[in-house]
Amino acid sequence: MYALFKTSPGDRVTYIPNPASHCNPNHLSYFKFVGRVIAKAIYDNKLLECYFSRSFYKHILGKLVKYIDMESEDYAFYQGLVFLLEHDISELGYELTFSTEVEEFGVTEVRDLKPNGRNLTVTRENKHEYVNLVCQMKMTGAIRKQIDSFLEGFYDIIPKRLISIFNEQELELLISGLPTIDIDDLKSNTEYHKYQLNSLQVQWFWRALRSFDQAERANFLQFVTGTSKVPLQGFATLEGMNGPQKFQIHRDDRSTDRLPVAHTCFNQLDLPAYETYDKLRHMMLLAFNECTEGFGLA
User: Fold this and answer.
1) What is the DSSP letter of 229?
2) Which of 32, 36, 179, 215 is the most exposed place for a label (fewest CB within 10 A)?
3) Is 265 a catalytic residue?
């Protein structure tokens, strides 16, 4: 009805501002109102059943979004950016310019990422600039007015200098509260790849997860799914970018000095075959609590 937000295609659960919200002539006033409501709820310690994308939390905190945040917004596009960064530009097979296509209501238009961008070719020397600009356009520039209106209302209640002491994960919990995570339900709806339920590391994993307190379990859920939201009908209905997607534990056969890695679009955890329970638990906590950007390539 109001067209203010849409679900993120990366997980189909969290919300992002709708770039086409201008179809509602009063959309900016509504965004300001929503910003005030959310800030007032935080101020009054009232929890809300609303979950936003990582990039939107960063906007509230005044942090710059990074290309890695694109994984949960548009996974296919994110994969293309990673390929561009890791390979020679000539391997793309086509010419890339400092412009991007934007579709609204069935109409596609080309927008420059910098002045005369559609006539500027992306090269090996400037491809990092291109990645930065195209991510800023997609996650910030396309919804700049909506973000500014939301923040105007939000900062009326809670100044930026006060809210910016938190990170994205903490802000989500501040707005929506700590979830109650049923470990048995999660375990019964988990898939294993190159591991089995009776694998030693898998047994250690569930033992460690049960030993965590409520806040640590919330950090774990954020790490592997991108949000602390628990599905209303249980983990059997956990969503991924392509629809229902159960939690997955994949064996990582690389060095056991590596931290666990998460792929939030697929609710996937890559777990190295650690030698001891204590090491596995330590590495899990280190990843969940300290590594706020727990993404990797699938």
Assistant:
1) P
2) 215
3) yes
